[in-house]
Amino acid sequence: MDEKLVGGVSHLSGYINKVRNEEKNVIYAIAGDMFRGSLIDSEFQGISTFQITNLLAPDVVSLGNHEVDYGLAHLLFLEKCASFPIICANMYVKYIGKRLFSSHWIKEIDGMRVLFIGILTKEVLSNTKNDGLIGMLIDLEDAVSEVGKVCDAHQNMDIDLTVLLTHVGFEEDKKLAAALNPAWGVDIIIGGHSHTLLSEPSVVAGIPIVQAAIGTDQIGRFDIMVDTDDNCIDSYTWQCIPITDENCPNDPSLEKVITEYRDLTDQKYGRVLTRFPRAYTHPKRNMETELGDLFAEGIRDQLGIDLVLIGSGSIRKPELGPVVTLKDYKEIFPFINSLHAFQLTGEQLRRGIRHMLREEAFVDDDHCEWYQVSRGFFCEYDRPTQTILSLKINGKEVGENDLITVAMEHHHFMSIGEYLKIRPEEIKENGRTLEISTSVANVLEEYFVSHDHLEIDGEPRLIIHE
């Protein structure tokens, strides 16, 4: 909630200021995802976030996948608003190979030189597919190569400590550490993206890997002694500090700035859209949920599509209602996405649903690509044998050659080859693709305004046998 944003960031700033006043040689680094989809962030298109981050005064920031939520061109504009360096070694302009951001940053502190290198998750490539000139080095081998290039270029500058500031997820961080050449001298990996809370560093190939979960619930603190003669770590301690009243003093000046933004949004977004009989929930990404059913059905009802697939990750909070204000709605469904309609054969739909229901999706709740489906869709799935027992649209079993009209959000449609294993070329063979709405959020908002006391039908759309 924005209320939590106010208190959390204020206390985070207070803790950072406290440590800077108490300790020497302090570096504050952010491993991506400054944007978190709050109403304030959405209303001001990231400008508020950059102003607030400027006040936090990080020494260096690496990009995360949410930094392109408002488009790549807008991110390049926001970079001009930043009072801190933004680094990313593996995002570049195709054909000429020019990086969009600086690959690294060197901090000189008390006679030491600390080299930071930014590495980003491949998910950003999905968010920038409409920017045809933009590419990324997304494979582990390529990312390792980029790290090597930067390290080799700066070894003769007497670097005392080398830090990878990554946004690839904990498991990928471990693979990355194992693949690095020890001669490059990488000392630490500070990671993000997978929201992993590590009470102790995970050490791979002698490299400590740390991560401090998500948002402003806690801050990771690394106390490091550096041997400047051998340019390596002598000793270290790691801890995650909860951002609470007990641990962190308040920063009234920062709280004042955030409160001013919040007051503006509260005045604009206080009107009631609709009411539910009770609060509806979305407890997990990798399951059919009440809100998922409601959102997918709302779009189908407004636009008359056979099947609507809404990404579970597009629903950003676990509960909505019973009274739904515009503020509540914008917070739970904050991203602006167009809507694409296209046709799939029965075989392609079965293949996509089977991929969605793969075993990995039941394990990875945070980052699996799972879809909420509209009324009229029914799938019975046997998990032990990974078999679709039945797949129906409007009560009729779907044949291999049947054509079904499907609607998806822009981001998911552009990534359908990765997320559902359906190639774009196959879709083209089925007929035209149409952009039927410039904003899924607007479609749903109109649905809520025109339907009071919305009730979900309660009919399960996914039956999964364990």
Describe the structure using short key phrases:
five-stranded mixed sheet, 466 residues, disordered N terminus, alpha/beta, six-stranded mixed sheet, Purple Acid Phosphatase, chain A, domain 2, 5'-nucleotidase,  domain 2, globular, 33% helix
Write up what this structure looks like.
Helices cover 33% and strands 27% of the residues. The chain is of the alpha/beta class and 466 residues long. It folds into two domains: 2-263, Metallo-dependent phosphatases (Purple Acid Phosphatase, chain A, domain 2), CATH 3.60.21; 270-465, 5'-Nucleotidase, C-terminal domain (5'-nucleotidase,  domain 2), CATH 3.90.780.10. The strands form eight sheets. The chain has a six-stranded mixed beta sheet, covered by helices on one side. Helix 6 (140-154) crosses helix 7. The two termini are 35 Å apart.
- Supply the CATH superfamily name of the largest domain: Metallo-dependent phosphatases
| Main sheet overview | 6 strands, mixed
Question: Could you list the spans in which at least 5 consecutive residues all have pLDDT below 50?
Answer: 1-7
The CATH class label of the largest domain is Alpha Beta
**Given the structure, what is the number of helices?**
16
**Structural class by helix and strand composition:** alpha/beta
Trace the largest sheet across and list its strands: 6-7-9-10-12-11
Number of extended strands: 27
Distance between the termini: 35 Å
Coarse shape: globular
| Radius of gyration over C-alpha positions, nearest whole angstrom | 24 Å
CATH architecture of the largest domain: 4-Layer Sandwich
Proportion of residues in helical segments:
25-40%
Tell me the domain tally: 2
Could you tell me the CATH topology label of the largest domain: Purple Acid Phosphatase, chain A, domain 2
Q: Which strand-content bin applies to the residues?
A: 25-35%
Q: Please state the average pLDDT score.
A: 87
